Amino acid sequence: MSEKVDVEEHSMTARVLAEIWGTFVLVLGLIGAAIFAAGFHEDTNGVGILGVALAVGIAVLAAAYSVGRISGAHFNPAVSVGLAFAKRMPWKDVPAYVLAQVVGGLLATTLIYLIATDGPLGFLLMSTEAGFASNGYGEGSPGGFGLTAVILAEVFFTALLVWVVLGTTHKLAVVGFAPLAIGLTLTLIHIVTIPISNTSVNPARSLATAVYGGAFPMSQLWVFIVAPLAGAALAGLTYRVMLNRKGD
């Protein structure tokens, strides 16, 4: 994500297509693991929280190394907004990136939904009634965490993600390792926060699942747009002070 490259050498069309693809891969890996492999809804030997967390880290690695050189590999509106606040991305490019990320996420959950329609008897109904791996608080939280806890987790852990993105893609950082560091950070974030909010830190991911999760996840979606964007703004605005870097 946000690999250290000169994206300006690529057209906006190429960058948008790269963001669609990368977000599609990220959401497909994360939500596909949650829906098909985690074993949340029945007594099976599923991959559980650790498996889902590893899935998102691996998906980010694959997507970032494949198209990061084109778009910078944001795959997340919060990352794009955080980079803009840090003056590492022009604000004029943010709307196109965010739209591409939303489209990529929706394409991924649509594919997962279509696969689930031909699953075992009752599988699709079970998945949608469980919220289709949507984010939530209160009754929507896997661990029953309240609104305040979820907001704090989403703000801080999104800020952590954006801080790592900014640090690992700095011009003085070691070249080629940003996707690895960011993928591992996302894995850590998911291990910690899946029980709290089912982990958003990415508004495009939250919208993509809420669309198929039903009215209840949609009613709580605002939290997973506002909180990650607030965390991104916090990281972007404090980046230079925190890392004491000049001349970015």
Tell me the layout of helices and strands.
Layout: H1 12-37, H2 48-71, H3 77-85, H4 94-117, H5 123-129, H6 147-168, H7 178-197, H8 203-213, H9 215-220, H10 223-243
Helix pairs in contact: 1-2, 1-4, 2-7, 3-4, 3-6, 3-10, 4-8, 6-7, 6-10, 8-10
Protein architecture, described:
This protein is an all-alpha fold and 248 residues long. 69% of the residues lie in helices and 0% in strands. The longest helix has 26 residues, at 12-37. The chain is globular.
Largest sheet: none
CATH topology title: Glycerol uptake facilitator protein
Describe the global form: globular
CATH class: Mainly Alpha
- What oligomeric state best describes the polypeptide chains here? single chain
Low-confidence stretches: none
Order of helices and strands: HHHHHHHHHH
CATH architecture name? Up-down Bundle
**End-to-end distance:** 18 Å
GO cellular component, one term: membrane
Organism: Aurantimicrobium minutum
Keywords: Membrane, Transmembrane, Transmembrane helix, Transport
Membrane topology: Multi-pass membrane protein
Give me some keywords for this one.
Aquaporin_transptr; 10 helices; Glycerol uptake facilitator protein; transmembrane; globular; 0% strand; 248 residues; mainly alpha; 69% helix
Outline:
By secondary structure, the chain is mainly α. The chain contains ten helices and no strands.
